[in-house]
Design brief:
Blueprint lengths: L3 H20 L8 E5 L5 E2 L4 E6 L9 E5 L5 E4 L8 E5 L8 E10 L5 E10 L13 H9 L1 H5 L14 E2 L5 H28 L8
Parallel strand pairs: 2-8
Antiparallel strand pairs: 1-3, 3-6, 4-5, 4-7, 7-8, 8-9
């Protein structure tokens, strides 16, 4: 076997290992750090929304929208430039009293889109709060009971819960490595064929 053949086999093995490494998904992804409004927050007014991520975002393909309690979705105009933070102004008619959802789709620096949502409550001034809308009998019984007014219930902040989805597309380097492997295989085939031609019989038997 010619000396070049083991070298070609070693190169092919190295390329195959690199192909596996490149094809594996990255362990670290761009993630949401904070948002305005925050998850579970109650706001009385909202002129602008913002989302901050761990890494730089691309300035293309980013979308923000608010979904009102009745299901109406209003697309927001993303302000430029986009860095690690993306912001947008909120139109006056985009919100509805109650639970609203800020939905987003942003593009990370590596080109992967990230989708998620932030749920918050809009309580405009003048709207009755849930506590104020309680029945009169319940309010009367609560005020008539000394023990009820004497007990202070602990308050806790809701834990932010944001669902983030990341689509991992094929890495362009995979195609480069596949091409290199194919070229190496072709070179090996040519080398083996040339070896066969050199080592063959030079002529027929002589009498």
């Amino acid at each position: 076997m010619p000396r070049i053949v083991p070298r070609i086999l070693a190169v092919l093995a190295a390329l195959a290992g690199a192909l596996v490494a490149v094809g594996a998904p990255a362990s670290a992804h761009t993630a949401l750090v904070s948002s305005t409004p925050a998850e579970g927050e109650t706001v009385t007014e909202l002129a602008e929304v913002s989302l901050e991520f761990t890494e730089q975002l691309l300035d293309i393909g980013n979308e923000l929208a608010i979904e009102a309690p009745d299901g109406t979705r209003t697309a927001l105009e993303v302000q430029e430039p986009v860095t690690e933070t993306i912001t947008a102004a909120v139109p006056d008619d985009a919100l509805g009293a109650g639970e609203n959802i800020l939905r987003y789709r942003v593009v990370a620096g590596d080109g992967h889109p990230i989708e998620g949502d932030v749920t918050f409550t809009y309580a405009p001034p003048g709207e009755p709060s849930p506590a104020a809308s309680a029945s009169p009998s319940a309010s009367a019984s609560a005020s008539a009971s000394p023990s009820a007014s004497a007990v202070a219930l602990p308050t806790t902040n809701p834990t932010p819960h944001v669902t983030v989805y990341e689509e991992v597309g094929p890495n362009p380097a995979v195609y480069v490595i596949i091409g290199a492997v194919a070229a190496g295989a072709l070179a090996l085939t040519i080398a083996l064929r040339g070896r066969g031609d050199d080592g063959g019989p030079s002529g027929g038997p002589t009498s």
